[in-house]
Design a protein that fits this description.
The chain is α+β, with helices and mostly antiparallel strands. The chain has helices at about 10-25, 25-40, and strands at about 5, 50-55, 60-65, 70-75, 80-90. The radius of gyration is 14 Å and the shape is globular.
Length: about 100
């Protein structure tokens, strides 16, 4: 059995918010963006270490994959890749609910 991708509640909410924001201008482009993000995250199945180590955690298994303007932060747990958050680079990482003060 291969690796599976799981989106945390925060990551699901991030996808919803990304879609809603882009949808204000174009539903078509909003769908394309979400599809592209999901495609990139699925690439982690073939190489779970595709992203670099996330500097805010002292843990080799918490990593980030940069895609367009997003930082896709994920954790490798056994045979799962848990997408913790999809963070837009223009926002402060310290304001992201997936990253607590204890992590910084």
């Amino acid at each position: 059995m291969g690796l599976i991708i799981v989106f945390s509640l925060i990551a699901k909410d991030d996808l919803k918010n990304i879609f809603e924001y882009i949808k204000r201008d174009s539903v078509v482009y909003a769908r394309k963006e979400i599809t592209a993000i999901r495609f990139v995250t699925n690439r982690l199945k073939a190489n779970q270490y595709l992203g670099k180590k996330f500097e805010n955690f002292n843990n080799e298994f918490v990593r980030e994959l940069v895609f367009k303007n997003y930082r896709i932060i994920y954790e490798i747990i056994d045979q799962r890749i848990v997408i913790l958050t999809i963070h837009h680079h223009a926002r402060l990482i310290s304001n992201n609910p997936a990253i607590t003060d204890d992590d910084l």
